[in-house]
Design brief:
10 helices, Rossmann fold
């Protein structure tokens, strides 16, 4: 098989949650540039719609803004998608939030907000979109669910982001159990565990912390959009046809060599 066919995603339909900025934007852009019809969703409608207009200049991108931390919004988003599509080839569960505070000051809302978006929405959005994913999947070509975990769910870092780290450990393991029970439905579930990429979330880390991240990584740098695009395209293409239940760190070696 030629490499162009092995890694092709052209003609597929994808949803990227948290798709208006950061890692979600990187993934959405990579898919649009390679011929995928992409639906992006995010809580801030203006940012979501602005990126969709920009990406529509090079391909097909549609914004359906939604706050996926709320069950009624998950249902509304799914209903809107069902009006437009009969199947869904790729679901990227990327929407996420973080909260940092010392142990004795950490608030309940800093726990609930992060868990609702980072873990609960991953499960219930996938559940709600199951009919569209099943319609896309076949024994020859599985539909794909790609959950965005984090290396903070694999290692313990210097950051006191308790709910974030716990939520991402949850995403990493939720990926494995979803993979086991959705594979018979011709849906392959895998996760990407990113390290540190330039984003609004990582911009909150102070200069000393950012320098430590780079120094501790064997590759001595943060990630860039191409680093994330490569793994996102791989997991959505024939190249990963026999990959199921994997959690793949993309972090320059930070989590696996420390």
């Amino acid at each position: 098989m030629k490499i162009e066919e092995l890694f092709s995603v052209r003609g597929k339909v994808a949803v990227v949650t948290g798709g208006s900025r950061g890692l979600g934007e990187m993934i959405a852009r990579a898919y649009v540039e390679n011929g995928v019809k992409v639906y992006i969703t995010a809580r801030r409608a203006e940012a979501c719609e602005q990126l969709a207009r920009e990406l529509s200049l090079i391909g097909e991108c549609i914004a359906i803004p939604a706050d996926l931390s709320r069950m009624e919004e998950i249902d509304r988003f799914a209903s809107e998608l069902e009006k437009r599509e009969k199947k869904l080839d790729i679901l990227v569960n990327n929407a996420g939030a973080s909260w940092g505070a010392s142990f004795h000051e950490f608030p309940e809302n800093g726990w609930d907000k992060v868990m609702d978006l980072n873990v609960k929405s991953v499960f219930f959005l996938t559940q709600r979109l199951l009919p569209l994913l099943e319609a896309a999947g076949s024994a020859e070509s599985y539909a794909r669910v790609i959950n965005i975990g984090s290396i903070e769910g694999i290692r313990t870092s210097h950051l006191e982001a308790y709910s974030y780290a716990a939520s991402k450990a949850g995403v990493n393991h939720l990926t494995r159990i979803m993979a086991k029970f959705l594979a018979p439905k011709c849906i392959a579930v895998n996760a990407i565990a990113p390290g540190y990429f330039p984003s609004k979330m990582t911009s909150a880390i102070d200069e000393q912390g950012s320098r430590a991240v780079v120094e501790d990584a064997p590759m001595k740098r943060m990630g860039n959009p191409d680093d994330l695009a490569g793994i996102a395209l791989y997991l959505a293409s024939k190249a990963s046809a026999f990959v199921c239940g994997a959690v793949i760190p993309v972090d320059g070696g930070l989590a696996t060599t420390a």
